[in-house]
Design brief:
58 residues; mainly alpha; 2 helices; 0% strand; ATP_synth_F0_jsu; ATP synthase subunit J, mitochondrial; membrane
């Protein structure tokens, strides 16, 4: 009665492209955020989280 069924519902095949797209989007946003934090304009800003975490300003 419980466990695997004879005709299980497919999950990975229809959801796979959305999961991969979400992972790629998260990676690209992370890279863009890191590039913006390390830019010359915000490198020495006291609101910069990199400075608060203990990284040295350039």
């Amino acid at each position: 009665m419980f466990g695997l069924r004879k005709w299980s519902t497919p999950f990975w095949k229809p959801a796979g492209p959305f999961i991969i797209g979400g992972a790629i989007t998260m990676y690209l946003i992370s890279k863009a955020q890191t590039a913006m934090i390390n830019s010359d304009e915000y490198k020495n800003d006291p609101r910069n989280p990199a400075i608060a975490a203990g990284k040295k300003a350039h």
